[in-house]
Design brief:
heterohexamer, A mainly alpha, B mainly alpha, C mainly alpha, D mainly alpha, E mainly alpha, F mainly alpha, D: mainly alpha, Helix Hairpins, elongated, E: mainly alpha, about 85% helix, binds sodium ion
């Protein structure tokens, strides 16, 4: 069951190795050795559960994307706070968002991003992975929301994955 | 050694008898006779000692702490009874050989008979009261099996059970009596007890002890009001009846009274209890015997009556009366045994025992008839037969009782009256059976004389009757003297065994009885008509009805208490705890110890409030199950926070993991269960439960408060000091778990493992039907495995494994450890199941489990394996 | 296991205490196993019982469940730990081990009849476990220790308000042990659960109630014994009347039983009452008598369970119901065994039950207690006699015409194990002297807790052989 | 603080006992769970309440009593095993009796929940 | 300053907890309750972290991590139960 | 501890606490389930994230070097919050939880 000294998912192994260093109290010889062992062993065990590779084409764009999302999260949190605290009752809406992305992981990331950024939550994804149902807390117009999402997040993701 | 041998031999024979079953009936009969012959031979050499008034004692220690020893003691009284048992026993065996039919279980018969004989010998030869009691109960038991020998007969079964209940129950009273006597005397040895008569009679417990002992004796000897079992014991094969009711079983009670005569007799209590019981029995038995149409029934009630007579004699308390009693024991045994055997022959030859059908047998079996008529005459007290002699002594003694005023007339009148009845029923036995016209519709016709050898036992017994009747001094004189001497503790009065003592009052009474009896018999139809006006009670049916009433009552009572309601059982448990702790807790009150209360910080206060509210809300809204489950998980979460708040990180983590797995498990269960609990308890019951719950809660509050505020020191200082040097870890909790108290942890893992096994075994046979939709009537959504969840679940597993590894490795020094690590892995696997389903996931893990809930097992196994791994380094 | 248990019995019979300290930690800090006369007696009792039940089970009752033997052995393991441990919390763990194994065993063999009694059994015992923990907690919170010897030292020193706490805690323990022992009013879970369990399991369970009694005998004389000052003889004034009522209830249940197994199950409750009454009186003689009776009744009841099962298997549709039915196979063999069992259980001479009862009767000092105990015990015996004679004569003797649909004949393992277990009562009679000497010495040892306390001073050492063995 | 803790344990016990006395398996299991939470907290509290004194050598000046913590850990694990068994047993009861009544009574299955039925 | 901020923060989080419980009890639908308990889990993480800062120990970080993991799994399981009845199928 | 660190820690704490509270207020007072979903998903997650960061800075500045364990937790929370929200929304749509009156569009029927 173990392929000798192979790393079936190098990405995963890297992440695991780094995580181990974070968890251990500081980087030391022991933690590096243990981290290596775990980075090799765990993917061997879980390979079956996660056989498909994350189909990144341009992985280096990921950090920029994450930073952008983080910024949006923080900035937009204030607007949600405002919405929540203001006496005015919001005007919620369900919006069907036509997906251009095809890769399931990419869709998931997009949906997550939408949920984390203010005012919108991904409520559902259609069975054929073509439409995303978004609940907006306070929507002025559907199209505005769709465009904003497409431009800010879906486009960069499409670049990364296709 | 010879005395124990005498008792032991029949038991050995009982074991051996079935072995001879192969050799045929004769072989068994012979084999069964051998023990008695040897026993007789073994007793013979002791005669010289006994004749000189001595006793033979063979004693071996057994259970000194109980006062129980293998003491065997032979004196005149014991010898007399032993001889009766052995000799009549031999005759019965001979008789049985011809009586039993070919297809019957002869081995069982002889085996039981020998057991019974051994037990009887045990009673009479015991030199220790407890030992005697053991044999006493054994006779109850073996007679039960003998009476029910024909197990297919309902009457036999019922009669046997009734006999067992009465005699066995009496045995229990006797046990209590003997224990009391033993307490008074300080020993159960017969010699000590007999020597301590004055001490016993002076003791405050004497009346109780006497009553209990007499209960034993009266039940066994079928004294009124316990007489009713005896006639129903007639369901036994006739040889058994002959044996049990002439010489043995029923005589055991008589023997007991005679045996303990020096220790218990001679007081007013004794006199009133024994003599009045005897008198009542004497009269009642004689009266009923007259109306019995069943040959054996007549004999049975006559037995009851004669037993009453003996008891009355013993109760009179005079020495001569006691001698008469002993004498009558011998006489009754001989004539009654022969009568039973004769009755058996008649039954055997005619196929019935109904005297209304059996008539004029003289024509068909003159030999048997002669024998039976002689024996019956003896029973009726005809001169020149042994029955006459003891009856004369009885009449004489009845005149000697110094009762005040008119009461002095009572005993002689009753004696005469009983005599009249006795003559009447004896006459009936003779006339109604052997003469009185022709037989009516006999099942077997015509009857013949029985086989030659079947008559021999009867002949021997009848011969004995005549011998004793004519030559009393020569035939039984020495034996009677020896027995009477043993009974009376050596003070034998002057008495004369003569056929005729001259014309005196007793003789007059005998004449009155004789002619009165004949007169009564001649007018029998009037008496029968008179008697027929009373409804005859079948005691067996009454007893049976009583027992089944009791059984039904017990059944209903049990069913009412043990009603199968867990609610009730749980309530009883909780209420029991409350009941036994309420006094200390009320004494404790709302107590705050010397450490006092510490300040509350308000986040903790609010968390506590949340916990309390969620807990109570769980109870309040429990009928909406999912809601209650959510509330329960809040409780679990806050409990974990509480552990964290009060310095127990390990506990917090364990609690969290266990809680989530539990909730998932409960949800799995809830899928199959109704999502809603119906209202079932009544309002009263709910209020009751609320009260119980509140009291329980208050109790725990009071305890906790008192406990938390008391100063305290524990053995834990040792753990804190030795954890690092001795246990090699800084996390003291984990060091305790794997080292100081590693054995607990081993047990805990074992529990997990067994639970998994049990769950697995149970699930194999469980077929659950999943409901088609939720409680609102929605069908389940088609969407099994949502995309986002699937995507996030994938990386979760490797990450969780790593966290597990981390938590596991640091456990010895930091919070964490194997169990938590195992649970994290389990939870990560649960996530895979939720996200991607059973089949997908199972294809990817090396174990196989067949059922949904088998997962619980999986989690437990993983957690157990985790903690096992962490426990082994110790 | 029987061999090792007997070796331990021989070791213990010299009256010494042998301890095994896990991890070589000096008590009271580590967990110790303590072997004394009582522990050895219980081990032998259980080992013998376990052996024959296991042989019986291997004659076919273990079919269809590979876990059976594992659970069976775990059950024995739990029992053995319970008898040996010298630590209160470890006793809890041992209880849990044997309970969880018993849950599994109880459900063994499937069938819907077992589910509900099993559910009741498990639920009540879970509450019992909770109570056990509370009791332990209270006692720890006052004394700061869990080792029983150490507790025996510390409990007499408790003063002031803590007395109330310890009383409450001790009483909770008594309730827990009472629940396991099935004392009234905590006994109603038992009859159905036992009556419906597979025979070897029910037979093994004969010792389960004895664990509760063992725990009472172990913990209470030691910790709340004569020397416990204000806490001396805690709870015993409750125990005595309850024991007698339990005895009475058992008798009524037995009388009203409609099947042999139910009858025997109520016999278990009768035994519990019979055992606890003299124990509650607290004398050496009473304790000794109870221990003697305990050995006798455990084996006898177990034997009767096996007999009842054999009757069920040979009697077609009627099973073990006390109703008339066509004649069963092997009637003679089975009826003789039943007779022996019934005589022993009913306490009639000449079998061991009688001697046990005799000792119990003799152990009471004259007084009110004596009147009650004698009265209830003797009247109870009388009614039991009626119950057994009625049941036996109906089941074995009252045959209606008809043909038994040829049941499978018994195999040797089943019949031999049942026979031997039932006849052990005779062995007890033969060895009554030595056994009563042993129980007497055991009772004396229990009564004088100084020896037990001394194990705190015993320097720990590694014994030559391990004390617990988990194989049969 | 002690009073608060005592009240918490009291509330857990009371709720647990009330649920224990219900007639269906599910509430009974929840009741036992609540009861065991209460018992675990109680057992934990026998070492008295300590703030910031986790018994890890070197992390604090004084330490909470570690023994009750160890005991509670054992108790939690055992309780988990027992609860799991009870859950499965109650499912078995459901399968056998088509009903989740604790006494296995074969009654009609309870009506399905409706919005107004609470 | 940190102390003051800490107290204020603890106060806010505790208040948030109370609001969560309000929603939990109020409902009105099951998803509301699950949402409330999900939020409660996250607040619990905050409380644990704040406790750690107050006590100056990192001993409780793993507890926080565990709450995060367990909270997520239990939320997901509950949501799945509401949708599918069977959490694991 | 540097003053900067103190300011940063305090600010982050207050920011975090504030957002946690805001999320809870949203949960408590918004009109329907779908709107209530927004508060916890974003505000609370952000709030707790901020508190974690303050913890990282606090412990890094008081003693034993840098330890990023809290970051792991935060990342985990950010990864899982949307999934939880998604699952809950799906459940709500399945059950047919009602929307507030003036909602545009409607949930999908499951
Ligand atoms: Na443990
Ligand atoms: Na979440």
């Amino acid at each position: 069951m173990f392929d000798r000294l192979s790393f079936p998912q190098p990405w995963l192994s890297w992440v695991l190795f780094l995580t181990w260093q974070i968890l251990s109290d500081g980087v030391s010889g022991g933690s590096v050795v243990l981290g290596l062992i775990l980075a090799w062993l765990i993917p061997q065990l879980t390979h079956g559960f996660w056989p498909e590779r994350p189909g990144f084409v341009k992985p280096w764009r990921m950090p920029a994307y994450i930073l952008r999302v983080l910024k949006d999260i923080v900035v937009a949190s204030f607007s949600v706070a405002w919405l929540i605290l203001s006496p005015r009752s919001p005007r919620p809406a369900f919006i069907s968002y036509p997906l251009k992305l095809e890769h399931p992981l990419a869709i998931s990331i997009l949906a997550s991003t939408i949920s984390l950024t203010p005012g919108t939550v991904s409520a559902d994804i259609s069975d054929d992975n073509k439409t995303l149902l978004i609940h907006a807390l306070d929507a002025t117009s559907d199209q505005e929301v769709i465009d904003a999402i497409h431009n800010s997040y879906e486009k960069p993701l499409m670049e990364m994955f296709q | 050694m010879s005395l124990p041998l005498v008792v032991l031999l029949p038991f050995l024979g009982a074991i051996a008898a079935p072995l001879f079953a192969q050799g045929g009936r004769t072989a068994i009969a012979i084999a069964s006779s051998v023990p008695a012959l040897i026993a007789l031979a073994a007793l013979f050499p002791h005669w010289s000692v006994l004749a000189a008034g001595g006793t033979v004692l063979h004693s071996y220690e057994w259970l000194p702490a109980l006062g129980l020893s293998f003491s065997f003691r032979l004196d005149g009284l014991a010898l007399l009874f032993a001889l009766l048992i052995l000799v009549i026993g031999l005759l019965v065996i001979l008789y049985s050989h011809y009586y039993l039919k070919a297809h019957e279980n002869v081995a069982k018969f002889y085996s039981l008979l020998l057991c019974f004989k051994g037990s009887m010998l045990g009673i009479v030869l015991s030199g220790n009261l407890l030992l005697m009691l053991i044999f006493w109960e054994l006779t109850s038991l073996t007679s039960f099996l003998l009476i029910s020998f024909w197990t297919h007969k309902q009457d036999a079964r019922r009669g046997a059970r009734m006999a067992l209940a009465i005699t066995g129950g009496g045995g229990l009273a006797l046990l209590a009596g003997i224990l009391l006597i033993g307490n008074i005397v300080g020993s159960f040895e017969l010699d000590d007890v007999l020597a301590a008569g004055d001490q016993i009679k002076a003791h405050a417990m004497y009346p109780v002890a006497l009553t209990l002992v007499l209960l034993g004796a009266f039940t066994k000897s079928a004294q009124f009001p316990f007489h009713f079992w005896l006639p129903h014991a007639m369901q036994a094969p006739t040889p058994i009846s002959a044996y049990l009711h002439s010489a043995t079983m029923v005589k055991a009670g008589i023997f007991l009274m005679a045996r303990l005569y020096p220790a218990l007799a001679g007081t007013e209590q004794w006199f009133y209890m024994v003599s009045f019981t005897g008198m009542a029995t004497l009269l009642l038995g004689a009266y009923i015997a007259m109306f019995k149409h069943d040959l054996k029934g007549l004999l049975a009630y006559s037995t009851v009556s004669h037993l009453g007579l003996i008891t009355l004699l013993l109760g009179m308390g005079t020495q001569l009366a006691a001698v008469a009693a002993i004498f009558h024991v011998i006489n009754h045994a001989t004539f009654k045994a022969s009568l039973f055997m004769a009755a058996g022959i008649i039954d055997h030859e005619t196929g019935t025992r109904d005297m209304r059908r059996i008539n004029g047998l003289w024509r068909y079996m003159p030999h048997t008839a002669t024998l039976a008529m002689v024996a019956a005459a003896s029973m009726g007290g005809v001169p020149l037969l042994n029955g006459f002699l003891s009856k004369e002594m009885f009449f004489a003694e009845s005149l000697q009782l110094n009762l005040p005023g008119l009461w002095a007339w009572v005993p002689p009148i009753i004696a005469t009256l009983a005599g009249i009845f006795a003559v009447a029923y004896s006459a009936r036995f003779i006339h109604d059976v052997f003469f009185n016209g022709k037989p009516v519709d006999l099942p077997k016709f015509p009857p013949h004389e029985p086989p030659r050898y079947m008559k021999i036992p009867v002949e021997i017994l009848v011969f004995a009757c005549i011998m004793v009747g004519v030559f009393p001094t020569i035939s039984v004189g020495p034996l009677l003297y020896s027995a009477a001497s043993a009974t009376l503790g050596g003070n034998v009065p002057d008495y004369e065994l003569a056929v005729i003592h001259g014309f005196n009052l007793p003789l007059l009474m005998s004449f009155m009885a004789f002619f009165g009896g004949l007169l009564m018999y001649s007018q029998r139809q009037r008496f029968f008509d008179f008697h027929a006006r009373f409804k005859e009670i079948d005691e067996k049916a009454v007893f049976e009805a009583l027992v089944s009433k009791f059984v039904n009552l017990a059944n209903r009572f049990t069913g009412w208490l043990e009603n199968g309601s867990l609610q009730r059982y749980a309530m009883l448990l909780v209420v029991s705890v409350i009941a036994v702790t309420v006094i200390p807790l009320i004494n404790n009150g709302f107590y705050i110890g010397e450490n006092g209360l510490s300040a509350i910080d308000w986040p903790t206060g609010i968390a506590a409030g949340v916990l309390m509210v969620s807990a109570l809300a769980t109870a309040v809204w429990h009928r909406e199950r999912f809601y209650a489950l959510v509330l329960l998980s809040v409780v679990g979460l806050v409990v974990a926070l509480t552990f964290a708040r009060f310095s127990a990180p390990d506990l917090a983590m364990t609690q969290l993991s266990v809680e989530v797995v539990t909730i998932v498990l409960l949800m799995l269960a809830l899928y199959y269960m109704p999502s809603w609990t119906p209202m079932e308890s009544s309002k009263t019951q709910r209020i009751r439960d609320i009260l119980i719950a509140l009291v329980a809660g208050t109790g725990m509050t009071v305890i906790t408060l008192a406990m938390l505020t008391q100063p305290f020191s524990s053995i834990s200082a040792f753990f804190l000091e030795n954890s690092k040097p001795g246990g090699g870890g800084t996390n003291v909790v984990n060091v305790i778990l794997v080292d100081f108290r590693g054995f607990d942890t081993l047990g805990e893992i074992t529990v997990l493992a067994i639970a998994s096994l049990g769950i697995y075994a149970m699930l194999k046979n469980t077929a659950l039907t999943p409901p088609p939709g939720d409680g609102l009537g929605h069908a389940w959504t088609r969407d099994h495995y949502p995309l986002m969840l699937k995507q996030i679940a994938r990386p979760m597993l490797p990450l969780a494994l790593m966290v597990s590894a981390y938590i596991f490795l640091r456990g010895h020094n930091q919070p964490g450890g194997g169990f938590i690590a195992g649970l994290i892995t389990s939870v990560a696997l649960i996530l895979q199941y939720i996200a991607s389903g059973m089949i997908w996931t199972q294809d990817r893990i090396p174990f196989r489990y067949h059922n949904v809930i088998g997962l619980g097992l999986l989690f437990a196994t993983i957690a157990g394996a985790g903690s096992l791994a962490s426990a082994t380094p110790s | 296991m029987l061999v090792s248990a007997i070796v331990l019995l021989v070791l213990a019979s010299d009256g010494s205490y042998r301890i095994y300290a896990f991890g070589n930690w000096q008590p009271p800090f580590g967990i110790v196993l303590v072997l004394d006369r009582l522990a050895a007696l219980m081990l032998v009792l259980t080992a013998v019982l376990g052996l024959f039940c296991h042989i019986y089970a291997s004659g076919g009752a273990d079919k269809g469940n590979r876990q059976f033997h594992t659970l069976f052995l775990f059950q024995l393991t739990g029992l053995n730990i319970a008898f040996l441990t010298g630590d209160l919390f470890n006793l809890f763990v041992a209880f849990e081990v044997l309970l969880i194994a018993s849950y599994g065993l109880l459900m063994h063999g499937g069938g819907t009849a077992r589910t509900v009694p099993g559910l009741h059994y498990v639920t009540l015992n879970l509450v019992g476990s909770a109570l056990f923990l509370i009791g332990i907690g209270i006692i720890y919170s006052v004394t700061g220790t869990l080792n029983m010897a150490d507790l025996a030292v510390k409990i007499p020193q408790v003063t002031g308000n803590n007395l109330n706490l310890v009383k409450a805690g001790g009483m909770m323990l008594l309730v827990v042990f009472g629940l396991k022992a099935a004392i009234l009013p905590l006994c109603f879970w038992l009859p159905k659960a036992y009556a419906r369990a597979t025979a070897p399991v029910a037979a093994l369970f004969a010792v389960m109630t004895k664990v509760g009694i063992y725990a009472i005998v172990r913990v209470f004389p030691l910790i709340f014994g004569e020397g416990a000052g204000e806490l001396a003889n805690l709870g015993m004034d409750w125990l005595f009347p309850l024991a007698l009522i339990t005895l009475g209830m058992g008798v009524i249940g037995a009388l009203g039983a409609d099947s042999l197994k139910t009858l025997v199950a109520w016999q278990v409750i009768i035994s519990v009452g019979t055992l606890l009454a003299p124990i509650a009186l607290g004398s050496v003689a009473g304790l000794s008598a109870a221990l003697f009776y305990l050995v006798s009744t455990t084996w006898t009841v177990a034997g009767l369970f096996l007999v009842s099962e054999l009757v069920t298997s040979q009697r077609g549709l009627a099973g073990d119901s006390i109703v008339t039915a066509p004649k069963m196979r092997h009637r003679t063999f089975l009826s003789v065994l039943f007779l022996i069992g019934a005589v022993a259980a009913g306490g009639l001479p000449p079998l061991s039950g009688f001697f046990g009862k005799l000792m119990i009767l003799q152990s009471v000092e004259p007084g009110v207690e004596m009147a009650w105990l004698w009265g209830v015990l003797l009247v109870g015996s009388f009614l039991t006699l009626i119950a057994y004679s009625r049941a036996g004569s109906i089941v074995f003797w009252w045959n209606v015409d008809g043909h038994q649909e040829t049941p499978e004949p018994m195999n040797n393992r089943v019949s031999i194990s049942t026979g031997i277990l039932t006849c052990l009562t005779m062995l007890i009679v033969v060895l009554a002297g030595p056994i009563s000497d042993y129980t007497r010495a055991t009772a004396e040892q229990l009564h004088d807790n100084r020896g037990y306390i001394n194990i705190l001073q015993t320097p720990v050492h590694v014994p030559q052989s391990p004390l617990v063995e988990e194989s049969n | 603080m002690e009073l608060l803790f005592a009240l918490v344990i009291g509330a857990l016990t009371a709720s647990g006992v009330y649920l224990l006395l219900r007639a269906r398996t599910f509430p009974v299991i929840m009741g036992i769970t609540l009861l065991s939470y209460g018992v675990n907290l109680f057992l934990f509290a026998t070492g008295r309440l300590a703030t910031g004194q986790q018994p890890v050598i070197g992390t604090s000046a004084s330490y909470a009593d570690p023994l009750p913590q160890a005991l509670v850990l054992t108790a939690i694990v055992i309780g988990f095993a027992m609860t799991a068994f009870l859950v499965v047993l109650s499912l078995r009861n459901l399968a056998d009796n088509e009903n989740d009544h604790v006494d296995g009574q074969r009654e009609e299955t309870p009506p399905h929940r409706n919005k107004n039925g609470r | 300053m940190i102390t003051t901020a800490l107290y204020l923060t603890i106060g806010m989080v505790t208040l948030a907890t109370l609001l969560n419980v309000y929603r939990l009890i109020k409902g009105p639908d099951e998803p509301d309750r699950v949402l409330a308990i999900d939020t409660l889990y996250i607040n619990a993480i905050a409380l644990i972290i704040l406790l750690g800062i107050t006590l100056g120990t990192r001993m409780y970080l793993e507890s926080a991590l565990l709450i995060a993991v367990m909270g997520f799994v239990s939320t997901v399981a509950m949501a799945k139960y509401l949708k599918r009845g069977s959490v694991i199928e | 501890m540097s003053l900067f660190a103190e300011y940063a820690i305090s600010a982050l704490l207050l920011f975090g606490g504030g957002f946690t509270l805001v999320g809870a207020i949203g949960l408590a007072r918004l009109p329907d389930f779908y709107t209530r979903l927004h508060g916890p998903t974003k505000a609370t997650t952000v709030g707790v994230g901020a508190i974690m960061f303050s913890s990282v800075i606090y412990f890094s500045s008081v003693d034993q070097g840098i330890d990023f364990s809290e970051v792991l937790i935060t990342v985990f929370l950010f990864m899982t919050a949307p999934v939880s929200a998604n699952m809950l929304a799906k459940a709500a749509m399945h059950i047919g939880v009602e929307t507030v009156k003036d909602t545009e569009g409607g949930p999908w029927h499951q």
